[in-house]
């Protein structure tokens, strides 16, 4: 059986007595383990030679799709190219061997890097200061909301327990608000996909802590009324929170701070080219306006005449009720370091090209495909846009079918069935790093699939045809996952 084609488990390649290692001679003597922590039976581990192990995992790695080996049009989450130089810098022993409890005078270089990252992100977003402590985007959301709550509580404004969230928001927005103990109030979108200012006005009052927004929003549309929205929310005493998931198209074009946002979280694992996917690692720095600096969590790096120190000099006894710790130590320092490398590599001038190029690529794809795919909101988009399935609904081919068929042509599928505003949503986001040749190839394939849907719909409905496995029963996999080799063998025996 061809291991690469059929993807055998490492246990199925096992043969008793084979080894892929040799241990050095024991120079430490015998130290028996206490019986209470010893296994009753030997661990069931595969026994394979070294070449079998290497080929097995190499073949499996080639079945994994990544931005390094194909086009990734995944909307909503910027699956951006991660240059190897970012990894090289983050792998330097001078950084990886550091310990967070080292004396301050022995880590001045690392603290300077962290301080520079804080200042760079603040400058890019138009914020006064930034904390690097949160470990991921949703963690950054929670931190930002806790800062907002602390601000209102410090002022004795305890009635403000509601957060306004657009109906097109990322799902983590209402979830983070709920975890923070805040009540979620939904504001509707207009037929054009933007926040409905007329629906917003009646929601504002002395119980509103703030509003959470993404700009451009989840449909890839710039909220053109953002200045009016900011004034309305500020006038009622609330604050504006910026979900940084869609910051990519704004780089070099606009800054959330200039739009009136008071708090922003960033996804370094999206906008700033650090690894993304597989559950981590992530980083979700939070930036704040001047009046919220005292509420930033600790530890925080700041600069003195003598060098760099760790604390928040603005967090005095007056702000003792402020939320001042959300993580251990300094967050994911090496992820922040990767993002800083990306920023320095581009430099002040080239980072300004990111947003415009991402916007150009998205609009080019949209205009080329809108005759075959239904475009519910036909206007200038930013980094991403949303189709509502195929334009010809008579074929019976769904967005899921199109996504599965894309796999046969070597493309990762875009985000599907999100946002929930459209029944057959298909969100496409090319990012700025893709060439016109790559994008043209994707456009051609999408046209081919649309033609297949019209001429041979069953071909598309039964896709994928060229992948190691076909369509997975997602519900069954979630409810009854097979997590061990022994369980798999038992299940196969029962089926037999």
Automatic annotation (TrEMBL):
This is Probable glycine dehydrogenase (decarboxylating) subunit 2. The glycine cleavage system is composed of four proteins: P, T, L and H. In this organism, the P 'protein' is a heterodimer of two subunits. It comes from the Bacteria. One of its GO terms (cellular component) is glycine cleavage complex. Its EC number is 1.4.4.2. Coiled coil: none annotated. The modification N6-(pyridoxal phosphate)lysine is found at residue 270. It comes from Prevotella histicola F0411. PANTHER family: GLYCINE DEHYDROGENASE (DECARBOXYLATING), MITOCHONDRIAL, GLYCINE DEHYDROGENASE, DECARBOXYLATING. It catalyses: N(6)-[(R)-lipoyl]-L-lysyl-[glycine-cleavage complex H protein] + glycine + H(+) = N(6)-[(R)-S(8)-aminomethyldihydrolipoyl]-L-lysyl-[glycine-cleavage complex H protein] + CO2. InterPro entries: GcvPB, GDC-P_C, GDC-P_N, GDC_P, PyrdxlP-dep_Trfase, PyrdxlP-dep_Trfase_major, PyrdxlP-dep_Trfase_small. Residues 31-294 form the Glycine cleavage system P-protein N-terminal domain. Residues 357-456 form the Glycine dehydrogenase C-terminal domain. The glycine cleavage system catalyzes the degradation of glycine. The P protein binds the alpha-amino group of glycine through its pyridoxal phosphate cofactor; CO(2) is released and the remaining methylamine moiety is then transferred to the lipoamide cofactor of the H protein. Gene3D superfamilies: 6.20.440.10, Aspartate Aminotransferase, domain 1, Type I PLP-dependent aspartate aminotransferase-like (Major domain). GO terms for molecular function: glycine binding; glycine dehydrogenase (decarboxylating) activity; pyridoxal phosphate binding. GO terms for biological process: glycine decarboxylation via glycine cleavage system. Its cofactor is pyridoxal 5'-phosphate. The keyword Metal-binding does not apply. Belongs to the GcvP family. C-terminal subunit subfamily. Signal peptide: none annotated. Keywords: Oxidoreductase, Pyridoxal phosphate.
